[in-house]
Amino acid sequence: EEIEKGGFDHFMLKEIYEQPRAIKDTFRGRLRPNEGIIKMAGVDQNLERLLNANRIIIAACGTSWHAGLVAEYIFEDLARIPVEVEYASEFRYRNPVITDKDVLIAISQSGETADTLAAIKLAKERGAFVFGVCNVVGSSIARETHAGAYTHAGPEIGVASTKAFTTQITVLTLLALKLAQEKGTYSKSRFREILTEIEGIPHKVEKVLESNPLIEIIAAAYKDASNFLYLGRGYNFPVALEGALKLKEISYIHAEGYPAAEMKHGPIALIDEHMPVVVIATKKGHYEKVVSNIQEIKSRKGKIIAVVTEGDVQVRELADHVIEVPECSESLSPLLTTIPLQLLSYHIAVMRGCNVDQPRNLAKSVTVE
Ligand code: G6P
């Protein structure tokens, strides 16, 4: 097992550090910036069906559901296709309206999650086209779907999902961009530009990983907190949810993720000097609005840990701690902003003596309802 961990103390840390490679493996062969195209066999063969979709329904659980939420922003923003994101476990018990004009995208690392499989079966019965995004080759979901695209994260051993999440976002971004290009919602030059930018993401993730020692220091300062709040807007709202989930899963600290502007409708009542608040405040995502949310936290003495764009000055003045990520388009920013939150949860869990790779009560794949 020590050999498998490749010199890291835990699988989770190894998998966090594998993300530059995992993301690259996921777009390798698919992304061709020079030709200005994206190649995805499962999409190319079913292009008509995908382009004619009235809407996309995304069904998933846990971290994969958060990847689905990021995808909702990407599909609507770039490809102008309406999207609904569903907890697979709720979807089928609602007698949902599904037609043969709908496309269901099922996202699952393991490809074995019972609730997601059941959602797929229901959608197929009602005539929808079902596209899978799985990590495990030949898994039940990969076999049950009409078409799909694999993430190439490699085996994920840590129960708390890390590299599966960022590679799911990578695949879904490629899919959305491909549909955007086919639909003509994206200019040719902007399309080439974003393909080149995606190619540069692994290097930017490496740069984020360099903040690990700083994040460890921040973790030491807050490891005894009983609650955490995570805030983000737009593309980074799902990242806030995922950050909170990671902390809950492995450190057993209660954490909530919220859209930053929703804070005033409830969570703000929780803020005092004992409440660490992690805020994603990158430059391109409603920055000024998030800055004013940060001011509201500060005036209530909450402790602010902010994820900011390199060189940021304004938030640095307000926050107790800042973690910088390289500049990038808002639509790609979750691939960077997620990383510090994974590391923060990891270090807090280790410092609290928790079993990081196998947290209590959780399973890597949930094959029962
Ligand atoms: C379990 C795991 C989570 C995972 C979720 C969905 O709860 O502990 O890490 O996100 O299942 O799993 P899937 O394999 O469908 O992505």
What's the gist of this structure?
The chain has 369 residues and is of the alpha/beta class.
What would you note in describing this structure?
This is Glutamine--fructose-6-phosphate aminotransferase [isomerizing]. Keywords: Aminotransferase, Cytoplasm, Glutamine amidotransferase, Repeat, Transferase. It is an enzyme of class 2 (transferase). The protein is α/β, with parallel strands linked by helices. 46% of the residues lie in helices and 17% in strands. The chain has 15 helices and twelve strands. The strands form three sheets. Strands 4-3-5-6-7 form a five-stranded parallel sheet, with helices on both faces. A five-stranded parallel sheet has the order 9-8-10-11-12, with helices on both faces. It has a two-stranded antiparallel sheet with strand order 1-2. Helix 5 links the parallel strand 3 and strand 4. The protein starts with 10 loop residues before the first helix and ends in an 18-residue tail after the last helix. The site of 6-O-phosphono-alpha-D-glucopyranose has 16 residues, from helix 5.
What order do the helices and strands come in, and which of them pair?
Elements: H1 11-17, H2 19-27, E1 31-32, E2 37-38, H3 41-44, H4 47-51, E3 55-60, H5 62-79, E4 83-87, H6 88-91, E5 102-108, H7 114-125, E6 129-134, H8 140-144, E7 147-150, H9 163-183, H10 188-209, H11 212-222, E8 227-232, H12 237-251, E9 254-259, E10 276-281, H13 287-299, E11 303-309, H14 314-318, E12 321-325, H15 334-351
Parallel strand pairs: 3-4, 3-5, 5-6, 6-7, 8-9, 8-10, 10-11, 11-12
Antiparallel strand pairs: 1-2
